[in-house]
User: What shape does this take?
Amino acid sequence: MKTVKSLKSMQRLAGRLKCEGKKIAFVPTMGALHEGHLALIRKAKKLGDVTVVSIFVNPAQFGPSEDFSKYPRTFKEDRRRLRDLKVDYVFYPDRESTYPPDYETYVNLEKMSKVLEGQFRPIHFRGVATIVTKLLNIVQPDIAVFGQKDYQQSVIIKKMVRDLNLPVKIVIGKTVREESGLALSSRNKYLDEEQKKRATVLYKSLMHARDMIRNGERNASKIKRSMRLMIDRMAGTKIDYIAITDDERLEQVRRLSGKFTISLAVWLDEVRLIDNISVFLGDEK
Ligand code: PAF
Assistant: This one.
C-alpha cells in the first residue's frame, strides 16, 4: 500500500491508472477508522480494480463551536488497518495544500443543506460538498462509496453529483452496528461504556418506530411523538430533531408510503449522535 500526500501526485497517479483502463473505487474518510469504514472499503474493493481511501479531517465542515481540534486522529493505526485490508493507496493530504490561505471556492446545495442537520450545523454541508468535489476531482474515481449512517450526506452527495454532472457512480453502504444496536461512529470514542448503554436509545427508538409502522401506523407525527417520549425518558438526552423524509429531496413526509427514512440527532451528555433507518412500504393500494 502506498501513501500519497501531494494533491498533484494523487491526481497524476489517478490519470495514469485511468489511462491503463483501471477502475478506481474510492472511499473518502476523516480517519479514526472503525468497522463501519472497513465495510465500505471491502465493498469498494469488490467494485473496482484499484482502491483509494482518503484520510482528511476537513476543517470546512466543522462549525466554530464543534469538535475539529479534538476529533480523533489515529493515522498510524488507520494505515495499519488499510494495509491489512490490502488497500492500494491511502491519500493523506495536508490542510495547507487542500485549503491554501487564498482559498475561496465552495460548493453549496441551496435547499438540502439547510434542513435536518443543516438547521443545527449551518456550514456543515457546504464543507462536505466542497471537500467531496475536490476529492473527486483529484482521485477521479469511477465509483465512490459513502455510508448510510450519514443519511443526509449521502442524499446530498448523490444530488450534487447529478447537478454538477460529475462522472462518478455513488454507492451507499449499510450502517454497521454494535450488538447493542449502537451505530458505529468515530465519535463513539467520546463515550464511556455507561454512556454507550444510554446511547442505544437512538436505535431503540428507531426500532420502536419500525414496530409502529409494522403494526399499521402511517401518521408520521404520531410516530415521531412516540419516539420523542421514549428518548426524553433517557437521562442526559437532548433531541435536536427527529424527522421522516423522502430520500430524493429530504422533504418531510406526513402520511407514510413508499420509501422514506427516519433520522434523528440526539445529544447524549456532551456528545451529539445521529442515526437513521430506511423503510420501504410496498404497494399498499
Ligand atoms: O463522512 C465523512 O467522513 C466525511 O464527511 C467525508 C465524506 C469524508 C468528507 O469530509
